[in-house]
Amino acid sequence: MLKIAVGHSNDPDSQAAIAEVLEQIRFTLEDVSPKAGVLFAAIDFDHALVLHQIVKVFPEIELIGGTTDGEMSSVLGFEQDSLTLMVFCSDDIMISAGIGYGVSKDAIAASQSAVQQAGIAHKEEIELCISLPESLTISGIVILDSLKQALGKQVPIFGGFTADQWRSQQTYQFFQTEVYSDAVPILLFSGPILFSHGVASGWQPIGKPGRVTKAERNVVYEIDDQPALAFYHHYLGALPPSSEYPLALFDAESNGHYMRAPTGIYDPAIGSVTFFGDVPPQSVVRISEATHDKILSASKLSTLQALENYPGKAPAAALFFSCASRRQILGSLTREEYKQAQRCLSEFPIKTLPSCGFYTNGEISPLQQKGIAHLHNETFITLLLGEA
Amino acid sequence: MSSDIADLQMRLQQLEKEHRILKKKWERSNATCLQLEESTRKKESLLRQIIRELKESQATLEIQRRELEQTLTDLKGTQTQLIQAEKMSSLGQLMAGVAHEINNPVNFIYANLGYMHQYAKNLLRLVQLYQTHYLNPVHEIQTEAEEIDLGFIQTDFPKILDSMQMGTDRILQIVLSLRNFSRTDESDFKAVDIHEGIDSTLLILQHRWKDGPDRPAIEVTRDYGNLPLVQCYPSQLNQAFMNIWLMPLIHWKKPVPSKLINKPRKILTELPSRLPL
After folding, report:
1. What span, in angstroms and rounded, lies between the C-alpha atoms of B93 and A75?
2. Do residue A236 and residue B46 have CB atoms under 8 angstroms apart?
3. Is residue A266's pLDDT more than 60?
4. Which of A80, A235, A329 has the CB atom closest to B49's CB atom?
5. Is the minimum CB–CB distance between B93 and chain A shorter than 8 Å?
6. How many helices (H) and strands (E) are present in chain A, helices listed first?
7. What distance in Å separates the CA atoms of residue A19 and residue A41, rounded to the nearest whole number?
8. Residue spans per domain, chain B
9. Do A239 and B46 touch (CB under 8 A)?
């Protein structure tokens, strides 16, 4: 049986915070030793200290993690500047961690290295991958494509890109006791794991359409033959582009659209704007916005989708990956996003389902259950986990 | 005592933790405040721009609505004109048929009129000779000559023949114009003198130039340039001339008497120097 425990502390002191988190987990698990764990930490903590403390208490843990724009859990709800750890215990489910670094130089090699490292321990086919990759040094699409290539497209990937509280400077990824930047840590699951997910956004296109006339991967140089920055300034005045106002990219084939959010990195000299994912040249784009109501409705929808599709009797835990822009727009209402999701989950026979999550710089999940993974922006992803 | 100290230490630790959390939350709330202010400015700017774009869209829609209304009115006008043109085209074909049918009998009359003129002259000259050499004809001839008023016939007969000649000439001219106008007996695309087509069409519309009970007379002024033969569909071109003139002619009414000075009105047909043929 999959047993999951969660610890969460909002103490800004790293030593005190991790001590509190580990105490909560030990209280839940009693003497059971966790097999693996996922750590979500605010940017200002002494991450190396935190990781060492975890590994010191649970020496056999397979641990990954990353920095965030906000954290949430079934212990404290939504918090900022906090630390939350979810650990997994199971006799039958195999869980292992791996990391690849230098993704901006060679994303394929980094992803292969991570998959190879984590894959050694598995005798059965990989059922699920959770990843927390770098978001600022390279297009998220490149990392995701590399992961898909290394894992095989049939393996569903979930997760979120690490964040740095809107500073657009540097994000960190964790593997065991090490703190990395420009890296891709993964957790692989095999055996009788059950899971389902939901994904929803709430953003709607609002501005006039424009055509991307010059772009290279995730950097857009020109829209309608004018600097991309001018397209944003047209709507936001002199203020810089930010991820609350993503571009909706219209897909000519499906007649639908998907979002690409600016990273906050832009070049005023040439007018280029960098996005979290690739923006293909000739794409038709419109600036998009969201209201509190639409964002909260989408979060609820995501959780309900995941519940509806859960293949077992009851999930053992939930992981949430929510876009940093949602937190930015929701402000003090961000608490509601988590509460709402938790309320949906409490309808299950379990009193309080252990849950944990973070606010990301981009989300990863398939569109269909167990389908091919996609990079999302502005979404709320619910991942329910359990054992068959 | 030691338990009190331990208790105090625990409370102190708890207070220190709360102090750290509060300090962090205070820093965070300051940062959040700045972020929110920027967020609000962005939202305001976006809202202003979207309202501006909505107004532009509304204005564009209004222009498009007016254009559509105008197009609809134009289409209705074109439809009326097309119906009229179709009527005229049928009428033109009818005229061409009538002209073709009239052409043969008129030619028959025209061809014989010359002989008739010659025979009449000969006969009248013979009668004159008789009158010169037989001063006292028999009673019966003298009576008949008085009964038929031979003297008048001798004077009037050449005049009647001249009048017939003139009438036949005019019928032939009209038939020629009708045929020239319709050109049903010719190949579709050929080199023609456009002036000839204009003249034929004007002749067919000749009855319209005259003064009528409800319309003033029209004076036609031809101001032709030097045009070479032009490769075209002559029948269709003549039909076009007809349509150009017919609509204003239909509406050519006597001006309603008013205190305003009645200026001379004009139907001006100008052809561009380079026709897209």
Report:
1. 96
2. yes
3. yes
4. A235
5. no
6. 8, 27
7. 14
8. 102-250
9. no
Mean pLDDT of A214-242: 92
What does the pLDDT read at residue B178? 79
Full strand arrangement of the beta sheet holding A373-376:
A94-101, A183-190, A126-131, A157-160, A363-366, A373-376
ipTM of model: 0.78
B25, B36, B42 ranked by CB distance to A239: nearest: B42
Cβ atoms of residues A83 and A53 within 8 Å: no
The pLDDT score that the predictor gives to residue A286 is: 93
Q: Which residues of chain B lie closer than 8 angstroms to A239, CB-CB?
A: 38, 41-42, 45
Q: Say if CB A120 and CB A220 are below 8 A apart.
A: no
Q: Residue written as tokens 């509060």?
A: B22
Q: Search chain B and give the residue with CA nearest A325.
A: B39
Cβ neighbors of A210 (< 8 A, separation 6 or more) are A223, A224, A231, A284, A285, A286
The upper half-sphere exposure of residue A168, i.e. CA atoms within 13 Å in the direction of its Cβ, equals 14
| Lookup result for tokens 């009248």 | B124
Structure tokens at A227: 């600097």
CA dihedral of residues B30, B31, B35, B36 (deg, nearest 10): -30
Shortest Cα distance, chain A CAs vs residue B54, angstroms: 10
Backbone angles phi, psi at A317, to 5 degrees: -165, 165
Residue A15 with chain B: CB contacts under 8 Å: none
Residues of A whose CB is below 8 A from B17: 11, 13, 16
Rounded to a whole number of angstroms, the distance from the CA of B13 to the nearest CA of chain A is 10
Mean pLDDT of A98-122: 96
Residue B208: how many other CB atoms lie within 10 Å? 17
Chain A CB contacts of B41 under 8 Å are 237, 239
Does residue B109 contact residue B168 with C-beta atoms inside 8 Å? yes
Residue ranges for chain B with pLDDT beneath 70: 1, 182-187, 254-277
Q: What is the CATH number of domain A204-289?
A: 2.40.10
- Kindly report the nearest CA distance between residue B24 and chain A, in angstroms: 7
Q: Is residue B216 helix, strand or coil?
A: coil
Q: Which of A81, A166, A207 sits opposite B35 (nearest CB)?
A: A166
Q: Check CB contact of B23 with chain A, cutoff 8 Å.
A: yes
CB-nearest to A244 from B24, B39, B50 is: B39
Q: Are A21 and A38 in contact (CB under 8 A)?
A: no
Tell me how far apart the 2 most distant CA atoms of chain B are, in Å: 189
pLDDT in tens, B72-116: 999 999 898 888 777 777 777 777 778 878 888 888 888 898 899
Coil vs helix vs strand at A354: coil
CA distance B9 to chain A (A): 15
The C-alpha of B270 sits at a distance from chain A's nearest C-alpha, in angstroms, of 45
Compute CA distances A283 → A212, A241, A254, whole Å.
Answer: 5, 19, 13
Q: What is the pLDDT of residues B8-28, one digit of tens each?
A: 999 999 999 999 999 999 988
Q: Is pLDDT larger for residue A115 or for residue A348?
A: A115
Local structure of residue A91 (DSSP, 8 states):
S
Q: Are A187 and A156 in contact (CB under 8 A)?
A: no
What residues does each domain of chain A span? Answer: 3-200+293-387, 204-289
Pairing of strands A262-267, A272-275: antiparallel
